[in-house]
């Protein structure tokens, strides 16, 4: 049992490609629960990432200034090894639906069994249940590039970065088709 004087470090890992308002809601709520919160920008071999780890850190940092005990770092190792390296005691995971819960339970059990790291689940608020970084990129790419639409799902700096990145990629694809 944690005491009032015990310093507990939590780690919220993810790809954050891009960071969404839903991610920020989980960060805000986890920041209230723990003495220190580290946002871990990880690599997911099963995802095609749009932003580099450095870009994702740079997109997140200005969004965290209101919480001096929250910081962001990138890592390229097993998540529980990163948590240990940070002296973390617990992983934070956001849960949107039963599919997330099913996947996250398996991962939490592996992290506990292999890494001896506990997981705390925070349920996503209703307005963020349908928010997915993958869907945001798809919406933008399929003609939903109106920044006012995208900013309903991601912060302004992230919407601008998406516009720059996806515009550049689509221009490159068109140039390759012409060649």
Report on the structure:
The structure is a single chain. This protein has 179 residues and is of the alpha/beta class. The protein has a domain at 9-129: Rossmann fold (3-Layer(aba) Sandwich), CATH 3.40.50. The protein contains seven helices and five strands; from the N terminus they run βαβαβαβαβααα. A five-stranded parallel beta sheet has the order 3-2-1-4-5, sandwiched between helices. Helix 4 links the parallel strand 4 and strand 5. It starts with 8 loop residues before the first strand and ends with a helix. Residues 170-176 have low confidence and may be disordered.
Features:
7 helices, five-stranded parallel beta sheet, 179 residues, alpha/beta, Rossmann fold
